[in-house]
Amino acid sequence: xxxxxxxxxxxxxxxxxxxxxxxxxxxxxxxxxxxxxxxxxxxxxxxxxxxxxxxxxxxxxxxxxxxxxxxxxxxxxxxxxxxxxxxxxxxxxxx
Length: 95
Hints:
Layout: E1 2-9, H1 13-23, E2 29-35, E3 37-38, E4 43-44, E5 54-61, H2 63-79, E6 86-91
Antiparallel strand pairs: 1-5, 1-6, 2-5, 3-4
């Protein structure tokens, strides 16, 4: 089992969640709709410095579903190359 984190511009949030739900029908996830943080050059506050707003999505997925998540994110990165879509996985311990 893996914990998947997707961080991206809100403009692609609906595209990503629709594909996840389509490819993994029983997926359960949490979305934090407005992310603030510090980047390499400046703080990212959804203002004039970094105008877009970002979201983060967390989901716990099985090993085979993790491959689907990766494929979806890679496809969306190709489709929207300027949206800064990032994916991170953490191996989750099973109880």
